[in-house]
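Good morning,

Attaching, inline, the backbone tokens for the sequence recovery test we're adding to the shared suite. The designed sequence is right after.
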């Protein structure tokens, strides 16, 4: 996906009704020795980092349970849509563990330190409406009979992004500026934004966007 120039938006969904991702198989984990567990979790953390680093916008469609590593997968995405009946939680402390695939870092950046500590310390599960109220998900929708309401809403959002994502370099630089800038002080963040903007200036898509505005017509981006 990273190197496929035809890809503009990525939606993560489950093929299992009622479950987005239930996290690690603890029965499998119990058979591992300490070294194997450490290696497994490191690979999982690297996978989430790879998802977070995808240059295109990513959307998690949470139509069911997103627990432990499942919620960490959703947190690695740029945007999250949840059915109101979905259940989410970093439940690791209820099993004598702590989140190890980015949850302790991405959840506080998403909902704030206080709420993140409360959710991680208690291992509490919350529904889609509660997740929306605390900013964990961008949108929540009532579940439908097919069990894919969040996915359908994610597709609608993806289609809304798509015209802009047809200028993929601008979207890529915008995502990079946000992701890098949130980690540093605002002055450094402004410098990062400036560097990303400078890379966008010579693109043909920027010139086309300006021309389309002047000529009062939809832009025809070519991705260059």
């Amino acid at each position: 996906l990273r190197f496929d120039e035809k890809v503009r938006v990525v939606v993560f969904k489950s093929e299992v009704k009622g479950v987005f991702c239930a996290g690690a198989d603890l029965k499998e984990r119990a058979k591992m020795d300490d070294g194997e567990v450490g290696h497994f979790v490191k690979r999982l953390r690297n996978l989430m980092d790879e998802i977070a680093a995808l240059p295109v916008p990513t959307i998690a469609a949470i139509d069911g349970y997103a627990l432990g590593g499942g919620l960490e997968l959703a947190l690695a995405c740029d945007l999250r849509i949840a059915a109101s009946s979905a259940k989410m939680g970093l439940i690791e402390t209820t099993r004598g563990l702590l989140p190890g695939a980015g949850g302790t870092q991405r959840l506080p950046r998403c909902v704030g330190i206080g709420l993140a500590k409360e959710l991680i310390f208690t291992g509490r599960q919350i529904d889609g409406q509660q997740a929306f109220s605390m900013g964990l998900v961008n949108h929540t929708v009532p579940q439908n009979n097919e069990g894919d309401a969040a996915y359908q809403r994610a597709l609608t959002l993806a289609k809304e992004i798509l015209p802009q994502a047809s200028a993929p370099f601008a979207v890529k630089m915008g995502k990079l500026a946000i992701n890098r800038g949130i980690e540093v002080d605002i002055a450094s963040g402004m410098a990062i934004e400036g560097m990303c903007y400078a890379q966008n200036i010579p693109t043909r898509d920027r010139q086309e966007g300006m021309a389309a505005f002047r000529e009062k017509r939809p832009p025809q981006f070519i991705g260059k």
